[in-house]
Amino acid sequence: MRFDRRTLSAVLLAVCGAAIAMPVFAEEASTAPAPAIIPLPASLEMDGGCFHPGKVVHFAITGKLTDRRAIASLAHEVLRDAWHHPVTIASARERVDLRLVLAADAGANPESYTLRIARDGIVIRAATETGLFHGLQTLRQIAAPGSDAGAGIPALHISDQPRFRYRGLMLDSARHMQPLAAIKQQLDLMARYKFNTFHWHLTDDQGWRIEIKRYPKLASISSMRKETVIGNPDNGATARDGIPYGGYYTQAQAREIVAYARARHIDVIPEIDMPGHMVAALAAYPELACTPGPFDVYTTWGVSDDILCPSPQTFAFVEGVLDEVMAIFPSHYIHVGGDEAPTTRWIQSALAQDIIRREGLKDEHALQGWFLRRVEAFVRAHGRTIIGWDEILEGGASPTATVMSWRGMQGGIDAVRLGHDVVMSPTSHAYLDYCQSKARSEPPCIGNDLPLRKVYEFEPVPDGLTAEQSAHILGGQGNLWTEYLKTPQDVQYMLFPRSLALAEVLWSPKQARDWNGFLLRLPAQLAELDRLHVKYRPLGAQ
Asked: Which architecture, in CATH terms, is 166-197+204-400+416-421+484-501?
């Protein structure tokens, strides 16, 4: 079932107006139980009593903020939605319901904050605007939209900071695109649950989705496939739907997404996958291949043998593309893919074999390493760092490359032992395009089984690493590939509630995680997703 407010009230008792994670009789308890917050804060202590807002809710901001207007706007939204009272910035003589304090000594972690709710008011204190932002998102869950102003919210003290500094979700817009409004809604939801990285997969065999002015045929040719496979080709499907599919994001639209994410303290990492997964580009520029072509934008799923040839004109193309990509995306990381690049065409290519001999390379895998190190040198010359899927290790990745481990955890383990920074995103726990149960009623998916509980059991730091090696694990990421996800509603169904479990894995202290406690706190969040018209997968769906 889906959770509306009436369903929720039957499951949870509202004490001081906040949704809580366990039943309690208010007259028998001097202290209310903890609110149903996801992700669970690092430290939460309940105090006695409640805070009651005034008929006009006043807030004040103390400290020199770079973007005072953005923080004030969020505070206004949280307070207005909670009680539907008029909200205004306080004058010197007015009672302050909420005070936001930016202070250099408020915490060593740039994302940390403290939140104190007392009978006489609320104070959020942080060393950075990001910390204040996170504190307001937590307050949003305590003073949930539609809270009872008469009942108030419980007095408490939260001291919070993330366990990991990289907390990401990846969205594949290459197989199927999403409207800008849907991407913005996803960013809004990511911000609520304290994700800080949006990895945007923009190119693949089935479509090129970002405008590159230097190479206009990427928009006119590479963005369109003439039809799409029906069903799962891994199960023998060969039929096509005969319907052209395509589109791309203009540079202005991409900048709009970057700005929208930045306002929510989320970095956008673009991925331009290479040297494999480039058939769409080859359809427009066949001279970049090792064979003469022609090529069509891929109409099926899977991996093609056709990849970029390591020629001078290919590197001119890659550098031209990355020049424009880096001008759009200010992220520290540029994702260069590096996954699933078959060596077949390079084995057959005289040019590729000449490079292997000239450079003294062991084989074609080492040639890919040479290819990506050359790309990395270009990216680093522009002050950026490359990140790539764990296959980049096979060719000898540069020590400064960051590795995203998807084929299980071993790639990440190998990478940290070599001194690389790592983001863990294994298929076993973080591939959110996998089915959510084995029931036949599940919508089409890639074919594996990843239920909510297994996502919650994800542990990004495997046993057996030293403290120094463990420090190289930056965090984790959920990946959502969209072969079978044609609409924003399809995307939401696969993301939620599993991304809420991932949010807690990546933010909360390891020792505080508790599956049963998470389930008790989850209904309050599902009720909020209902209010926001998010099409999540209902708990217990068959």
From this structure: Alpha-Beta Barrel (3.20)
Question: CA 480, CA 7: separation in Å to the nearest integer?
Answer: 30
**d(Cα 198, Cα 183) in Å, to the nearest integer?**
10
Give CA–CA dist 511/194, Å, rounded. 19
Assign a CATH topology to domain 5-160: Chitobiase; domain 2 (3.30.379)
The catalytically annotated residue of 204, 376, 433, 483 is 204
Domain range annotation of the chain = 5-160, 166-197+204-400+416-421+484-501
Tokens encoding 194:
């304290």
Q: Which of 365, 523, 471 is nearest to 2 (CA)?
A: 523
CA distance 199 to 186: 12
204 included as an active-site residue: yes
Residue of 305, 319, 340, 414 marked catalytic: 340
The Cα-based distances of 172 to 203, 208, 305, 524 in angstroms read 9, 11, 21, 29
- How far is Cα 113 from Cα 106, in angstroms, rounded to an integer? 7
**Which entry of 58, 176, 201, 277 is annotated as an active-site residue?**
277
pTM of the complete model = 0.95
Q: Is 192 helix (H, G, I), strand (E, B) or coil?
A: helix
Classify residue 510 by its DSSP letter: G
Helix H or strand E segment including 140: helix 129-142
> How far apart are the C-alpha atoms of 444 and 301, rounded to whole Å?
14
Q: What is the mean pLDDT of each run of 10 residues along the chain (542 residues)?
A: 40 60 42 87 95 95 94 97 95 84 87 97 97 98 94 97 98 98 98 98 98 98 97 90 97 98 98 98 98 96 96 98 98 97 97 98 96 97 98 92 97 97 98 94 89 98 97 98 98 98 98 96 97 95 58
244-300 per-position pLDDT tens digit:
999 999 999 999 999 999 999 999 999 999 999 999 999 999 999 999 999 999 999
The pair phi, psi for residue 270, each rounded to 5°, is: -80, 145
* Torsion angles phi and psi, residue 412, rounded to 5: -70, -40
The residues facing 508 across adjacent strands are none
Rounded CA separation 483/455 (Å): 21
Helix (H) / strand (E) element for 59: namely strand 57-62
Q: How many CB atoms lie within 10 A of CB 134?
A: 26
8 and 23 in contact (C-beta within 8 Å)? no
Q: E strands along 347-421, which residues?
A: 385-389, 402-405
Question: Is residue 341 classed as helix, strand or coil in its secondary structure?
Answer: coil
Q: pLDDT for 350-385, tens place per residue?
A: 999 999 999 999 999 999 999 999 999 999 999 999
User: How many CB atoms neighbour CB 529 within 10 A?
Assistant: 19
Helix (H, G, I), strand (E, B) or coil at 338: coil
Coil vs helix vs strand at 442? coil
Q: How far is the CA of 369 from the CAs of 332, 339, 363, 385, in angstroms?
A: 21, 12, 10, 16
Could you give the CA distance from residue 409 to residue 447 in angstroms, rounded to a whole number?
Answer: 20
